[in-house]
Give the backbone structure.
Amino acid sequence: MKIKFAKEVTEATGALVVGVEEGLKLTATAQTVDEATNGAISRALKGGDFEGKADQFLEILAPANSDHSRVILAGLGKAEQALDWQNLGGGIAAEVLTKGDKDVSIALDADGEESAHVALGFRLRSYHFDKYKSKDKPGDKIKLKKLTVVTHQDNQADDLFDGLDAVAEGVFLTRDLVSEPPNVLYPESYAKQVKELEKLGLEVDVLGEKEMAKLGMGALLGVGQGSVRESQLVVIKWTGAAKTKAPLAFVGKGVTFDTGGISLKPGPGMEDMKFDMGGSGVVVGLMRALAGRKAKVNAVGVIGLVENMPDGNAQRPGDIVTSMSGQTIEILNTDAEGRLVLADALWYTQDKFKPQLMIDLATLTGAMMVALGEDHAGFFTNDDGIAKKLDAAGAETGDKVWRMPLHDNYDKLLKSDVADMKNIGGKFAGSITAAQFLQRFVNKTPWAHIDIAGTTWSTKDSSTAVKGATGYGVKLLNAFVADNYED
Ligand code: BES
Ligand code: MN
Ligand code: ZN
């Protein structure tokens, strides 16, 4: 699908989308179309319950005196923020994509910036993961070749869309990685795929088990030891600012499949645990977005890739491991594995790169889904400035976040009789004790942990994503970087 911007409607055929304001006021273009089609729009508006609100659409088939296959009225509602226009673009995509048109023109009388966001929303919603379907692919129904977004500021839209499109590519990469089945995407195949991003100007280094053992990463390695797949640590670097500038660091949990290990998970629903690498997927997608739009920032992504399996060599409840930090951990539940992977990945990152700040993402706890469902991700931070910036980026992008507490009283729940800490808290506050655990591996670095257990995967469609892998987090952190850390 090609996306272009133009000053006027250039396609005389295909679907034409025009805007109607709340209260049924026609935009100038809608007015022109109404006159050219002998009042087709005015007539259509009389009959129905269409009021011009957001998420409302009305389709007029084969309008008189026109070669357009259909005219679609899109309710503009109270569209103001960039996100409103993205959602509108996504809604339009949902409306037209499967109708068989090769050409779609969207003429909402919006300015350049608004139009670029309409195009982004449209593109995000057009994503399907159907590479493993040999028939009945959802993508087969999409015949669209060219999308034209009409705006008097077509050049501005074009310039802005270049950057937004790079973000969409990042979101798609994350969705692809999260959607891949665990027999295809495992630590080594995953690392190989990330290595290919070097084409975009990223620097990618892969550490295997030998190197990690040398570094003393006993926590991460313990998780992977029951799997026949070799664990990997992948470092992705983007240098877009002066080399001397300390980087922003993003760290991701990449458990390519989480059976729970010897503390085995129940069978029903276990297949969901292919998305337990979601945090790492966001880091990879984000790095791709930063490189794609040549962000003026230094960033490093570190992802810990392991498979959590139960076999004769698997880690046992009762084992004590030594992390790279030197702190020892009593394993009381092998299903609390994400924090073990992150413990070494975080320590390594702050030690090796001395970043200005560190943000980790992980599908860390089921308790996070109990608390916030599929809508908001919970975050924890030792820095109020980061909290403010994450809140703002969440509101701007629609990747919503909610701050959760850190406190000594929760940290105490990790006390072990035989080691420096145990890897589980207790019955209560499961997401918080997990975050407290991570905090023991970040030293004084400004840091945030985002638990995306509920937001990585969606059981229902949204305006800008069909159900499945959401790519949640890429837009959030891209905005976090763009709004605060680029010169
Ligand atoms: N990957 C899971 C968390 C998870 C569960 C994410 C469901 C998304 C959906 C994590 O490794 C895990 O198993 N956590 C345990 C921790 C517990 C043993 C302390 C959990 O949440 O039950
Ligand atoms: Mn687990
Ligand atoms: Zn897990």
Observations:
- The pocket of BES (ligand 1) is lined by residues 258, 276, 333, 335-338, 363-367, 369, 424, 430, 453 (CB under 6 Å).
- The chain is about 35% helix and 20% strand.
